[in-house]
Amino acid sequence: MISLIKNLKEKITGQQVKTVNNASLAASYSGFRIAGKNLGDFIFENITRFFAFVIFSLVILMAYEMYRQSIPSIQKFSWGFITSTTWDPVHDKFGALPFIFGTLFSSLIALFIALPLSVGIAIFLSEFAPRWLEQPVSLLVELLAAIPSIVYGLFGMFIMAPWLRKTIEPFLGDHLGFIFLFKGPPYGLGMLAAALILTVMILPIITSISRDVMKSIPDTQREAAFALGATKWEAVKVVLTGAKSGILGATLLGLGRAVGETMAVTMVIGNRPDISFSLFEPGYTMASVLANEFTEATSDLYISSLVEIALLLFIITIILNAIARLVVWSVTKKYYKVM
Amino acid sequence: MPYNFHYKWRKIKSSIMMILSIICALIAIIPLFLILFYTISQGFSSINWAFFTQMPKPAGEPGGGMANALVGTGILVAIGSLIGLPVGILSGIYLSENSSSIFAKMVRFLTEVLNGVPSIVIGVVAYVLVVLPMKRFSAIAGGVALAILMMPLITRTTEEMIKLIPHSFREAALGLGIPRWKTTLFIIMPAAFKGIFTGILLSIARAAGETAPLLFTALGNRFWSTQLDQPIASLTVFIYDYAKAPFDNWNRQAWAAALVLIILVTLINIIFRLVTRKRYA
Question: Which of B42, B106, B128 shows the shortest C-beta gap to A56?
């Protein structure tokens, strides 16, 4: 009996699948057919495929063109480009280490502040918040991502930097000055300002992905925890264990965002190519040097070096994004199947 | 009584964690309101009719506006849309129709990757692809940069919006003997139109708010220009230049322009969310 039903089911579903997928059946009334397809279908599919191919080739073209432009600089400096600290356009000597350092340092500090905050918000949104509160709070957090980066820059430059210089940095310097992070005179514009602005800018992306991942954990997990006598927070911990790799993915995406952020950082970081571990000192990032110097670049080698920085940035963000996407996808896929 | 104490401690800990998570949410929202507050309070006084209709005045003279920047942003976004929309929408359709083919998976992946590429890098690419061969900064170069920026966004929303349409729509159409391409164009697309349209608006909002890819492609222009092969002004580069300038008057105008930009972007975002939320329900 069971096998009979199963058989029948297969037959029915099998047929259904066929009628949906086999367009030629539906289209067999029109005359022209190419490769087993209606002529219109054939044309339409190939047009859309062509445009999909445009995106595909665009990414490859981008990488190739940047590589081609940076060949002079790669040949001249080779690995010295990323280990040298001299950036001297007048004498055509280019080393990008200060910028790489500035990018990584500011992004990592931002990540260090943003990660616990974002996970906290994600926990609130997916576990604690009542439904009527969840929607508007999500909206507000996501609006942070919609604000153009130039507006962040404006805010950082005119409002936050003076505040940091007058209030926060002297305070930190007085009380925590023995830590290397808080040494030096308060400039306002500097690493701390950049890191704080970046924190706010990457909050929304880490939050929304973490929240989605946590929401995709099936309720059975929470119910099982409650059934064993867990408190709300202990159930959250169970959810967090399941969402761990998804949050990791979100973190990497946030890092990718921070690494490539340009305008806001350029306006607040102070733009000085020094390597200093103090948060008060001005720094310089890869994106900022592109924003500031690209239009002024006169010699071919100068432009080539700048394009090489762009290429490095491109590679870093692609790697970060690729890993992050794979991680996030694998988590959500796993649990969608369970549901 | 140790058991009882332990239980109470666990409950207290749970409450503490809940309060901490609420504090996190509050901390995140504070900067949003600070930014909105300062943009309005600093920028509002400089917004008047002249600001939208007049040209920038030389440094030191009061008044003046950003008419050329508004028009410039419009032109740049139009070029970007003209190139970006067909590519984005059609490849989105391709991805939704052939969602499981290997090529589609690769394209989808590259779309995500392209979405994560910093906008300044896209600016460099547009510089290499357009400015270097043309040997001058131009509106076209800026438009190309914005197009590359918009493509992945449009592709993704198109695909997602089409996927929200129930499969029965397609089955019903195919069952009536309508060819696939007509089903897609005349049954699925109209049904998904609202979502796709707001998605397009969203990508336009993002393109209009971008500065980095325009710095060395469209460059900026203090004069009236609508020529596509010449440098052109834009709202965001206007803000950047005016913010860096040492004149109070200019700084205030930068805030005013930022206010205009922020209103535009926030409105579009809220509309998008309202429309898509209804879809999901």
Answer: B106
